[in-house]
Known about the structure:
Elements lengths: L1 H20 L20 E3 L4 H5 L6 E8 L7 E8 L2 E7 L2 H10 L6 H13 L4 E6 L5 E7 L9 E10 L9
Antiparallel strand pairs: 1-5, 2-3, 2-7, 3-4, 5-6, 6-7
Amino acid sequence: MASVRSLSSVVLVGGLLCTVVGCGGDSGASESGEGSSGTSPTPSSSFSSFAESWDEPASYAYTLTSSEGERSLIGRFRVTVRDGKVAKVVGLDESGRGAVRRAREEVPTIGGLLDRLARAHDEGADTAEAEYAPDGHPVRITLDPRKNAADDEQAYVISDYEPQPVPVAAKS
């Protein structure tokens, strides 16, 4: 875990330097306007301080768009998480509905997606990247285990994230 924290520090410092001195490249425009906050996500490494500081709530809902690669989890889904587990999944397109019928258990929590990201990084994936919203939750995760392998890529877009309030116990 110490190497992840060290990498995080390096990524954070590098990102700040790029912001201060202006790194070359595109204008930084987001590829997708998705996300519930209305602001563009802050691109960052898979192990940025955002990911380390974000505490996954016990209950929330989000929309997952899963694409790329040859796998069963392809499509758009509305996911409801309660007590840290997927409680409800609705397929929002034809592919998503088919995936829910075939393999509902493959639809992850956001924490589960972050676990996939960490595992891909630890296993030396060619690509294991994420972009995070200002509150620290991921809005895009891109995985490619092997550079020249066909159909092993995975892309996840997380939008319409809505944390659910923790119910207050009734006072007696």
